[in-house]
Amino acid sequence: MSAQYNVSFINPFLAAVIDVLGTMAMVEARPGKPYINARRTAVGDVTGLIGVTGYAEGVISLTLDEKCILRIVSNMLGEDYTKINEEIADAVGELTNMIAGQARAHLANEGMKFQASTPSVIIGKNHTLGHINKQPILSIPFTTPDGNLVVEISLNKAEE
Amino acid sequence: MSAQYNVSFINPFLAAVIDVLGTMAMVEARPGKPYINARRTAVGDVTGLIGVTGYAEGVISLTLDEKCILRIVSNMLGEDYTKINEEIADAVGELTNMIAGQARAHLANEGMKFQASTPSVIIGKNHTLGHINKQPILSIPFTTPDGNLVVEISLNKAEE
Q: For A40, which residue in chain B has the nearest alpha carbon?
């Protein structure tokens, strides 16, 4: 594990995913073991991502299986979604914003202050997301009763 | 056209795309008419995107047809590429960086100073990219002899 991605860096993201999905969608997200993603790509059906600047430049992304996000948004909005559409995309953007925002608030308390761009959402069966970054990419995988998701963080440097 | 996207905002992007593709890949990009993208999504086979903060928060993206990017990278690297792979993804990240960087330099001269995240690249046949932003999205389309590309810029506010 890269020094830059120590426990005090990872924990805010773990907590944010569990908290946001639990309170917004009543979905229990169980974290797997975080790892350095040497393949540098996440594969999924829908991805929300946010660029960050400040303490370091990089990207925070949230990639989900179709089944997983359909359950989350169905719970969030109290309707049955069976297909990824514009409302799902908006919800993924909002979830990405909330998870990144909550994690950023905790990181700022630890002296790591980030500014964030607005979110983008990519929809496409089995698309791949590549972080164009020479530094290690941190992957934090989660399972839910309805499928998987992964949060990835890439930062180009830490100012330590 | 939204007041925020006037000529002095659009021209740096026009010039950057024409210049970067011309000098890096000897590909002539002919700009179409910029428009406000009410559908809020770009559709293509490969997308590079960069988040920005500072003068405003937002996203700059570059979405290309497969044929178009294969020609560009084949010219850039002096090899024949027939499939979108990791090298193509890296090249799209680099092109996005260069186009956004050149446009940012011009915008900074006009008093609009942006910081940029690192680029992300999405690969997936006919994926859609959605800008999660309540503000208008500026699309600048280009044609090349080998297919189309579009640059999109979404900003959540202008500090004017």
A: B86
